[in-house]
Each structure stands twice: as structure tokens, then as C-alpha cells.
Queue: 4 jobs
Job 1
Amino acid sequence: MQVNIVHGKMQYLFDENGRRYVDAFGGIATVCCGHCHPDVVKAVTDQTKSLQHSTILYLNHAITDFAEALASKLPGDLKVFFFTNSGTEANELAMMMARLYTGCHDIISLRNAYHGNAGGTMGATAQSNWKFNVVQSGVHHAVNPDPYRGSFGADGEKYSRDVQDLIQFGTCGHVAGFISEAIQGVGGIVELAPGYLPAAYHSIRNAGGLCIADEVQCGFARTGSHFWGFESHDVVPDIVTMAKGIGNGVPLGAVVTTPKVAEVLTRRSYFNTFGGNPVCTAAGLAVLRVIDRENLQENAHVVGSYLKDRLNSLKSKHEIIGDVRGRGLMLGVELVTDRQLKTLAKMEILQVMEQMKDMGVLIGKGGFHENVFRITPPLCFSRDDADFVVDVMDLAMTKF
């Protein structure tokens, strides 16, 4: 039975009967500060009272203040922003910019990736579950550097050889770019094998392409160890896309790049009616301030590490848990019916999930085969919340 959610407060959600649920999914990694965080609510309401909408045709301090604060969180020359309404829009724009800048059409993405559901991003997405039968051209999908199910385990450099092979055998030798998440969210919280991104970026840049980091789910301090997911791989992309946590649930996305790459959009008129509107950017600025003031990155690291340890202890108890992975408060628990064969526990996960909901925990699931629990709660999650989630999961698996 579906839950009818009518109210949210920080890491908790409430149904029409007033029953409280621990939100372990965070609106699909979107609610980073907490549901209805008072500072974000105040920023939105105050801005709405003074100016609800103004396009980027006119100056407005809300967008410039936010852009300046966001730029301070990014490395190198990543300081030109284009605001959108979603991650799909951001990835569409990033891919178009890479194609314009390089004069090439070919994009390399990863198998198991999800980058959106519009024309171009559906091409970059590499799961049949999310792809309609429409024209999707110019994207090549490299072998996924999956440490759990991949052929080379955690050896990222071996997986990266497929990127070079795709360039040599699937393109003219030059490409527009490469797009990837540091941790695949929809794909089942798959953290890319160590060493993969530096090697892949090297091949792409040698072929004249740009490197795009999709930070829609793993950005904004969610991984705990770093503010951005790509930072844990010791790379600096040419373009970064973001959404979800950027506005704590407000429809907001962004593309950030260097002045040199950004220049391509001056060749024609690029415009987004609602992108960068004052209400959404005011929310975005409030989110950044809350993350810093409440030390949410540190909390994501501390509580996330504690939660991961507890989940690994649960793995020792329940054979149905095949893998525990991720970092910070972006964690995955893959369920299997046979650990040696890694047989997919498709039906079992639905039963555990339903029982957890009945006991007051809302949790996500993903992966191509839908057998992975996705744990991406608000970053204000506490150790008590982590204990409750694990204890409920333990009880549900014991009943199973």
C-alpha cells in the first residue's frame, strides 16, 4: 500500500494519520538539509514576497550571490554557471556544450549509468529500463568499472582500457566528451573502481574531448569525505552538472564550466526561462549556508561511516546481503539469494522493503535488476536514526 505523505520535518516524514517515518531515501538523494529546513523555507518565502520571478535578462543579486558562493566550492577555473531546472536539463546542456566546443558528436558514457530522460541524456543513460525506443545517437557505452560485479574487481585501470578501445574502434579518433557519476545512484550505488577516472580522463583528453562530472546525486557533501564525488578520485572535470541537493527539493540545477568552454554559448542565443530564477537561487544559497553552518559534510562522513559499519555487521549475520558499498550518506546494500553466484534477490527485496515501511522506515531501491537498497537520507541523519534503520532492516530480514 502506498504511503500518503503530508508533512516533513528534517529527516522524518509523516502520513495523513500522523505516523512518523524515518526517511532513508531523502527524496532520491535530493533533501540534503532536511525536510522543510527553516532556513531554506525562510529564504524561499522572503524571496517570494519581494520578487517571485525575473529572468536572466535582468540583473538580480539572488543569482549572483548564489553563483559566487557555489564557485567557492569548486576547484580550478570552474566558475561560469548556467542554471537549469533539473539534472536532466543540466546534463543535456553539458553534452551540447561539449559537442559545440570540440566540433565532435561522439560522447562516451558508462554502462549502468543514468543521466536523465530527455533525448540526449537518454542516449547517455545505459539501462534499458529507462530508455524509450526513440533515436539516440552518438553515445558509446564503456564497460562499467563495478568492483562487485565487474570482470576486473577493483582494478580501475583495467576497466579504463575499454574507453581507449571505444575511441580507436568506435569513433573517428576524436570525441566530444565523457560523462560519468563518481557513484552511480540509479545504477545501485556503484562506486567506480579506484584509478578508473584518472585513466579515463587521460584517454578522453588525448582524443580532444571534455570530461563531464555528473554530481546530481553524489554532490553537495553527500559523500562526506568530499563536497563533490569526483574529488575522491583526484580528478578535475571540465564541466560539472548538479541538481537535487542543490536546492533541497526546490527545482534547480546547474552546469558549471570554464570561461573558455562557456564561450561556445555566445555563438547563438541560449536561454532558460526559469533557470536561475530568484526564488530557486535564494533556496540554493540557503542550502550552501546550512551545509557549512551545521557541518553537514562532517556529519555525512561520521554518521555515514557508522551506518556503513553497522550494515557490514548485518552482512555478517544475513546471507541475503551480498554487498555493502558507497560512502558518506550515499550507501547501497545489494541483496542476493546466493553469495557465490551473486544471484539476484528481486522478490526478496520487495518483501523486506514492505516490512521496513510497516515498521517506520522509508528506503529506496535501484540497480538495473532492482535488488539494491539505496540509502541516501538527509545529511542531518543521526546515529540514532542509523541504528533504527539497521535494526528495522535486521528484523525484516529475520522475519523473511
Job 2
Amino acid sequence: MANIRALLVGLARARGSFVEAGRCASLRSSLLASLGGHYKVPLPGRWFSSTGLPPHLVVGMPALSPTMNQGNIAKWRKREGDKIEVGDVICEIETDKATLEFESLEEGYLAKILAPEGSKDVQVGQPIAVTVEDLEDIKSIPADTSFGGEQKEEQSTESAPQSNVANVSEQSLVVSRISPAAKLLIKEYGLDTSSLRASGPRGTLLKGDVLAALKSGASSSSTKEKKAPVAPSSQPTHDSQAQPAITSQKTDTYEDIPNSQIRKVIAKRLLESKQTTPHLYISKDVVLDPLLTFRNELKEQHDIKVSVNDIIIKAVAIALRNAPEANAYWNNEKEEAQKCDSVDISIAVATEKGLMTPIIRNADQKTISAISSEVKQLAEKARAGKLAPNEFQGGTFSISNLGMYPVDNFCAIINPPQSGILAVGRGNKVVEPVVDSDGTEKAAAVTKMSLTLSADHRVFDGQVGGKFFKELALNFSDIRRLLL
């Protein structure tokens, strides 16, 4: 009886331990789920204990932004064998928005790096590292273990026959139609169409097919055979051999430019904006002299150095506050315009990886000096790729300023879901009639700057655009309005 009683007590204790373990696991999963939207939180990992391997955690590529489906490994902060504490930054990941830090939610040791520095287009969820609980367990993980590579190889093996079939069917296509560009090349170099392979739909011979044949020299023999009987001398034959060589030199003069994740997303979003957003363009020239005088006064009298762009941001923010219909966006679900509660100005900053748009939030409520300081900090972080998601996601209106370049005026593309972006050109000296204080009209030199608004026509109509420019022009002519 004593043995049976001890056995029952042991089973009860074991059952309680399993229940507690399950409760902890559910709490951990709920915690990860609640934190999953934060930009420094990785995807949930699982501890494995495969045959021949110690307990280990396979770390997958996290989704560090709502639109991220792949990323690049910019830098590993930890090396194989390093100790990892909760909250330690493991690596830096270049997402579709910026370069963000990837923090660990587990303690352990970094046993193996599966995606080295410089890895490009790593899909979300794909294994990038393996961690273990104990330092001694690192030796038990073979260097050639793939942790998911077998599945990838199987998929590539399965897809190989399909690709071979596709290649065979593509090669077997005869030339049934010829594109106009291909016809010109064939006529220019006297090529034989029977030696060319068509890769276009329904056997269409494309320009790229002809250029590929010229580059490989596959059609040079047919060209020589075709032209040799016609020409009595050897000179034309020499020309026919030289022409493909010259062409190949010309076609080899291009250079592939690697694209960053940020530029890929920018290209996609700009294309979607032009295709789905009805752009309305409104332009106006404003006199810049009061602004320049005010800027000089701040510097000389108060030792405050601000840029022209800082004052423009404030002027636009005040105009949006006084014309709230312009500070809105189009709601696709409700199919109506919705006004924004705050005036958050996105400013375009050019970086090596692409154009970033950090945000000055509540710009209408901040002083010009505060805006100037914040712009400098955000621009520096943008160029370093250190912007946090809340510093560039959102915004109600954008400003793109090319006044520092010899650009008089231009039209910018709307940054969805915003409804407007203001393109600012450089200031130019012009002569125009000015009414003096005594009522006489005389010629005077003034500095004028071109402003072009690209607006979503579903939000902006002529009246809203006119009201916005009216308020904006008043801010430039009477700079004291910015201090109210």
C-alpha cells in the first residue's frame, strides 16, 4: 500500500508540473502575440530536440514592419559562441523601410549563423540562426546541419523537371511573328530568321532574342553565308564578321545596379500611387523676400539659425490648420474623405538607400526652432538607416524641397494614404511692378519661389485647393502669422 500511495503522489505531482508548464507556454505565446507588432520583437521560435542534436531554438527572419515579407542581414551584433541575454540585439536587419535592430526574447548561446552578413531577400520565417541553452551544446551541432535546407532542396528538385519542360517548350517555338524592333535589327544586320529562337508569346520574335543571338555570335555564321554569294570581293564578308562584334561591345556597356529593399518598396508604392490615385496639380508663385528677411532677423537678433525649409514647414502646417479640409485622406472602405486630427508633416530626405519621409508631428503647434532641431535629428537618423517605424509611418501631408538645386519647379508623386504633397522649387530674382507707399507704381526686383501641389482629386477639388493656397500665400506675405 505504501508503494501504491507513493506512486499516486508522484503521478499527481507530475500532472501538476505539466499543467503549470502548459500554463507558462500559453502565457509566453500570448505575450509574443501581443508584442508581435513591435519593431524589435522577433517571430516566435520553438525549442527542438532532434535525434542527435541537443535542445536548440531555430530563429526565423522576423517581420519587423507591417509590409515586410523579406529582409537583408545588414550586420550581426553577436558571433557564434556568444552568450545571449533577453533584450540583447542579435543583428541589424534591413527591412522595406529602414535598418532595424533585432532583439532576443530568449536566453542562450548563439550556436550557428544560417544567414551571414550581406544575405539578401531572406523571406520572413526563413531560419537565420540557431541558439542553444548550454555552451557545451554548441559542439554537438554539426556545421553542415541545414535546419530547413532539405525542404528547400526538395522543392528545387521538384521544380527542376518543370523548368526543364518549360525550357524545352520555349526552345521548340518557331518564329511565327516578328516584333517591329526585331525586324529593324534583322534588316540592319542581314540575319537569317531560321537561326533565331523566339521567346515571346505565340512564337513572337522579340528584340531581346535578336540581341542575344548577336551577342552569342550564333547568327554570325548564317549572316556570312547569306552575304558571301552576293558580294564579289572579300571586303563585305569582313564587314559582316565585324558588325556582330561591334554590336556585342555596345550591348556589354550596361551595368546592373543592386536594389535595396527600401528602393523596391518605394518603386512599388510610387507606381501604385500614380495608377490608383487621381492626381490634381495646382501651382503658385510666392514672394520669398519676407521669409528671407525674417530668417536673417532670427539669426542676427536672436542667434537662432533655421533653414528656409524649416520656415516652409511651419507655413504649410499653419495653412493646413486653417484649411482643415486639405488635411485629410481618402478612406477606401468608406469611400469618403476623412479629416485628420493632427497636422503631421512628412519631409522627403534623400539617402543612399532611397527616399525616406520622416515625420514632424503636430508641426502647427511647434516653434520654428523646435522644428529645425527635429528636422536635423530625423534627417541624420534617416541617412543612417536608424529611423523607428513611428518616425516615418503615418503623416498627413508631405513636402519635397529641391530649392537647393537648380530646379525651378516640378511635380511630386503623392505618398499614400496621404492626399497631398507640396513640391518646392528654388527662389529666383524677377522684376515686376510694385505699388509704393505713396500709391505710385514702379519696377522692383523680388525673389519668387514656385510651389506645386499634387493632390488627391477625391479629397481636393478646386475650392479646397484654392483655400489652401490662399492661406499659404498669406503666411508667406505676412510672416508674423507663423508666430500666432
Job 3
Amino acid sequence: MATAAAAGAPGMPALRQRSVKRRRWGGLRQQWKLLGLFEIDEQHEFYSLTCMMKEGLAAAIQSTIDTPVPTDLSDEDFSLEVTKIHKNFTMETFAGPVFASFRGSLGMTEQEYQQSLCSENCYLQFISNSKSKADFFLTNDKRFFLKTQNKREIKFLLANLKIYMEHLKKYPHSLLVKFLGVHRIRIPGSRKKYFIVMQSVFYPDDRINARYDIKGCEVSRWTEPTPEGSQIIVVLKDLNFDGQFITLDRQRSWLLQQVEIDTNFLCRLNVLDYSLLLAHQPLHHDERHQNLSFASLIVRTKKSVHPGSSPVHASVAAVPGAVLEDGASLLSSESHNGLKLAQAEDALSSSSSQACPEPAGSGCETDQLPDFKAQNRRLLPNLKNPLHIIDGPEQRYFIGIIDIFTVYSFKKRLEHMWKRLRHPGRSFSTVSPQTYSLRLCQWVQDHSK
């Protein structure tokens, strides 16, 4: 008896330690489910997976650092699959040169991209109130999202990658989510996982005080808000936004037009059920002042049209004709109090169409927007995520269109018929792509001013 007790004694601390870890992990899981965002440390179920993802991404990005991306992409680049074998897994990278070229067009260096995705800091997991079964990871700086996808969704993205890139080339200030990489990881004894890397719409998120997922309908589009002052992250929905407006003043017409262009593009892909992500934060006093300064106008105009700050064609002139390359000479001719924003925008809109030369190819958007080049002369904020940020007089808005993988299949048509019977007279998400596009455009028009 004593012998048995003595023999069991050394094992007791280990059992107690495991029990404490389980209780701690269970408590943290409950807490993290409330917070929605938490660190994937060594005790987390996804720690091993995310370490492999980091290692695989580091090697894949290093290849594009060591081998310059070709100036002209070929069909082979769009269909390229590169497999790298690691100690405990293999990682496949799809269309690597295409995404590397796109990242460069966004003004992002490969070293910067690698540093963010592959730093020693742990990834973060985001648990939302979305019905999606995907796993969402954020880089520690919250700049990039990594999201698991099923094989069907990945095949759809890769099949339409060329026209997606053509759309962003033609409309470089598009609100569509920016996909930056597609990968597949194979771990012995586990199912292979596909995942995508994309730019976070809500970056930087330091002062964001409300987040919304908008589909332009009413069924199941309400989320219980958190108490005031709570640190819980909840993504609100359409009905939560009732009575509010996106207040942009002069930039409102740009937003309405761009949402129409982007949703028309998704309609051509026969896609529905995508979301307009929306968040806002109050502008600081100095940020509101900068909107009116002439120096800020020069910086923002250059960022809007300079290749390397916006995904425009390499032959684009650095600055529109009305704004000189040398900002100092302009500043010397103006008072330091700045120029009225109205005058600045008039100068920008009257600049020559050389700002964004027409790319090869044409689509239905051209008929709907004869002067589409004007759509590419928006004044972008001088931030690392300018394409998804629009400043109004008092608020900064983060806006992007995400989840563009749901095709209007036979199954979705049946779901549409069933929902019509279940929710007579009410609007729901499963409708034809054309109806979905028109309805979301109408929502933006009704909720902006």
C-alpha cells in the first residue's frame, strides 16, 4: 500500500499540473469567446498549425525576394503551383508571382510582408458571430487576415484570379478585399488545409468604436450590442445601423459609384451573399485640419496615383497635371493656412486624364462609367491601408467588400425559394446576384450623405 502510494507520488504533480492547465485553458476559452480576439500561445489548439503556416510562408515569400517577379505576367504564372517540403509538413503556393506583383502594386515590399506574417509574435485568433465555419487568424500587428477556405472556394478564386486582377487594375481604388496569397498546407495524418492571406479592412483598428457587416437585408441581421464601455468585440449588422449615416459630403458620390462598379463585377461572376464591412472612428482635431491643408493635398494626391502607393499601371504619371511633382514650389505660392478642400478637389477633378491611362481590355463597367478614370483620382489618406479608408468631415470610415465566394448555384436557388415561403414580404440574403447588387447599392445610397 505504502509502496503503491510512494510509486504514485511522483506522478501526482504532473497530473495536478495537467488538471490546472485544462482548467486554465477552459477558463481562457470562455473569456476569449467573449472578447473575440486572443493570442495563439503554446497552449492553444492552433499553435502548432500557425507555427507551420509561418514557416511555410517565410520560405514562400523568401522565394519572391530572391527571384524578382517578371514584369509581364503570363498564363503560366496564374496557374503556377510551387511545393516546398518542410520537416513536418509541405506547403503549396498558388500563383505566387501574380500575388507578389499585386503586393508590390499596393506599395508593399516583400520584406515588409514577410516580417508581418512571419514575426516571432504569436498570431491572433478572431472568433466572430459569423455563421462561417472558417478559422480566422490575424497577424500580431492586425494588418493581415489568414482565413481557411474549402477547396471549392479556392478553385473559384483561382479560376477568376485573372479577371479579379484586371478589375483592380482598371479600378485601383476598388473596395473589394485585397487577396495577397493562396496556399495549401499538408500535415501527415491530418486533412490538408487551404488558406488565403488578405489585407484587413479594419487596419489600423486602434480607435474603431463600431464594426458592421452589411448585406442590405433584414432577416437575421441584428446582433445584440455590447454594454457601453465593454471591451468585447462584436460585429454588428444591418438593423443595428438603422438611423445612422455614412457622412462623407464631397466623397459620397465616389463611394456610391465604386460600390456600384464593384457589385456589378461580382454580379458578372454570379456571386451573392458578400458583405460590406463598415467601421468608423472619430477624426482627431489635427486630422480634420489636415484635410484642409494644401500640404496634405499634395501627399494624398501623390498616394492616389503614384505606382507603388496604389495598384495602377506602371506607366501612370506620378501626379495629375494640376498638381506639380515638387510640392515645395506649390507651398511657396500658397499661405500656410492651407487651401480650401473645395478648391483642392476642383483642381484634382480638372486634372488631365493622364492620371490613370486606360488599361487594356474592356468590360460592362465602362459603359456605366464613361469617365472611369475620374474614379481613380480619389484623395487617399496617407496611411498603410488607404484603399479601404475614406475620411468624412468628422469621422474616418473603414469600408470593404468581403466574402465573395458564394455562387448562385442550384442549391442557392432552392434556398431562395424556401426563404420566400418562410419570410414572406421580408428581405433576406439569398437572392439573385443582380438583385443582391442593386439592393446593396440602394442600402449605401439610403445610409450615406
Job 4
Amino acid sequence: MAMNGTEGNAEQPGPAERSHRSSVSSVGARAADVLVYLADDTVLPLAVENLPSLSAHELHRAVREVLQLPDIALDAFALWLVSPLLEVQLKPKHQPYRLGRQWPELLLRFSDASDDDVAMDEPSLQFRRNVFFPKRRELQIHNEEVLRLLYEEAKGNVLASRYPCDVEDCEALGALVCRVQLGPYQAGQPTACALREKLDSFLPAHLCKRGHGLFAAFRGRGAKAATGEQGLLNAYCRVKEAVGTDGERGASLSPHYRAYLLKSHELPFYGCAFFHGEVDKPAQGFLHRGGRKPVAVAISLEGVHVIDSREKHVLLGLRFQELSWDHTSPEEEESVLWLEFDGDNEGTPVNKLLKIYSKQAELMSGLIEYCIELNQTSEPAAPQENVPGPAAGSPPPPAQRPQLRRQGSVVCSRLQHLSTIDYVEEGQQIKRVKPKRTTSFFSRQLSTGQGSYTVVQPTDGLEQG
């Protein structure tokens, strides 16, 4: 079970902000209607018996039966309790109703929310992608409804800037949304001006901002379309139709859902669990004042990314083999997740240490450990029958796609925007020497990390799910 949070976006609500009240609370002990929310914000009411003792696995099965989803949905999706303050992926054994009743206590432990915000917050029950579902297995899915649900969730994360994207990638993804919503491209229909009317359905909010005042006055009806609108239209006309379809609106949308997911897979944080946090700013000015900046910490089966919540770009991206980590609990001092990685200081190799302040540090540390364990115990991916793949003898695909190496790309690390500690422990002195993972400050590394990850670890006074 994964527990995480994300910074809100004032212009386009993200999955955490699309919370709906009374999903699993204030119900009787016998028959009750449970509201489960899908990635497209549709509501699925379920009539269930004995809700207080109902497990997430049983409720998950009820959702799959109503939606008539195939068996792969058992692994691809999970039930989540979600609010703007906290997100919890449930384990099959957890009982959603009990965790919903424990929500205020979980917020007090894992968030910095005020007492008033805690009292007002209430989670919704959502059917969302399982953070432990490998991307490679998505390529084996053929059921259109499963692909649609994954597409809707990825689209929501892109539009909310939860997945930071470069403009050209936003336009390519937005073009696929145009194809799904508007049908095949037809010359002259729509125009860039027509797309402008509902641009926020295709592009993230920060690319849809309008000019105001004098600038807006100069932009008349005959003015040239904004770059984002014209770029979106150009990308839309390049969307290819699947071989064998007749080009009609009624044709299967599966190829376009899959194309959207494949493009999303290029983003290194696709499928991550998100957590709230803060990092120190680099000291600036005569008084060397730094302060802190809010970040989202994205953790997946592949690694850890620290994302600037305001600027919507990556500050640091690390694969598990590139980092060591640990955390300190509130009982010791302020709750902190520590990330150590190799770097340099003015050309000299050093160990760099990043301090992430977060009451969810314990959860992040546990999730990192569990992801490493899953990677170590999982068998190497083998070609599946009836699944297209590279021809025998062809070179393996690159570990990182070229477009993600673009200079200035939002997915590239920006260490200059971080305040890190350069160190090697040697008594009370700080010396800069070539770092070695085997002599890391921390014992937790890729080569270690045994154990089991438990997302919700309530205090003794809480009911166990």
C-alpha cells in the first residue's frame, strides 16, 4: 500500500484535489451504497453488505464485475483513499471503511495540515493505477476499457502538471486527446481558434493562460493563434490512424489510448506515487537567505524524482542504483528523507546529500525499500506470446529516449536549484573525496533493502486495516 501526497495546482485540479466527500463514511453496518470514483471523475455506486468489515480486495472485485474488466485489472488497478492532504493506496487486506474513520489520525501523523483542515478533510474512494504495476505489462493489455482508464488517469496527471512535460510533448499528448474527443483530423476542422475555446481540455493550465489588458486588446479575432494552439493543431493533423480502421468515429480508440500511454512512458515519473515535501533553497543575496521551496517527491519502481511544485520541472532524478537513502523520524528530530548521490563541486567528485523535509519521510523510505525489493525478486522481463516486440538480433532500445535529454527539458535535473551538502564523514571534518557507494554515509542502498513495505502504519490506538 502506498501513501503519498502532491502539491495542488490552483488552475487545474489534480487527482488529489478531485476529492469527493462521503465515499466511505457515515454508513450503517448492513447494506450501504459506496461511491467509487474512476479516473474520469465518473461515479460508480456499489450496494454492499457489512461495509465496516469489507476488505479492499472484495470491493475491488465488485468494481471489476460492474465494469466487466478482465483479470489483468486485478494487478493494473488498486483502490485508493484520496484527499487534497493525503493519498493512500490500499492493500487487499485493508478495510476502506475503517481507514476512512481513522483518517484524521492519519493526517495528524503524515501531514502538516492545521486542526481545522484535518476536521474538514474527508477522503474519497478511487479506482486508480497500482503504483507497483510495471510499465512493460501495460504494453500487453488489449482490453479497451482498461486502456481507457489508464489513459484517463495519465491525461489527468498531465493536464494538472503533476507530470511535468516539455511543450512539444504536451502538444503531442494533447493531439492524441483531440483525436479521442474530436475524431480523425479533417483539413480545416477544427481551426486553431476553435481549439482555443477548450484548450484546457488538451493542454496543461500553464500553457493555456490568456493575455490581459493592453496585450489582449491587440490580439483581435484575426490575430495569429498562440503557439500552443497552432502547435496543438499541427500535432493533431499528424496523428496517424491505426491500420485496418475505416477512419470513422465509431472505430476502436484502443490504438490512441495505447499511443498516449506509450508517450507517457517516456516521462521518467509515469506511474509514480507522489508525496509532499520541502527542500532548502540555495543561499542568495548579501544575507545568504535561502528558505525552503515546496516539492513533490515521485517514487516508482524505477527511481525517485524531486519535482518543483511551483515551477513544474524536475529538480533531481535518480535511479535506485544511483542513490543511498535514509530517514529521520519526528522522535529524533524534524522528519526528513535523506538522499545521497554522486556529484561534483567545481570539478571535484563529492558525495551530495539532499535533505527533504516531510512528515511523510517514513512512508517514502518504506516505499523506496519495497520497490527495490520488488525489482530484486522479479524475474527478468521475457517476450510474451502474441505481443509485438523487437526483431531477434535487433539492438536493445535506449535506456533514455533522446527527447528527454534536450537541453533545458523540464525532466532534466536542476542541481543548481538545490541546496545540497557535500561531504564525506571523517571525524568532525568535512572532506571532499571521490564517493564510493560501498562507503556511503547510509547503509540503505540498492544492494540492501530487505523487508516488507507497509504504507499505513497506524499507532496503537488506531484500528488495523
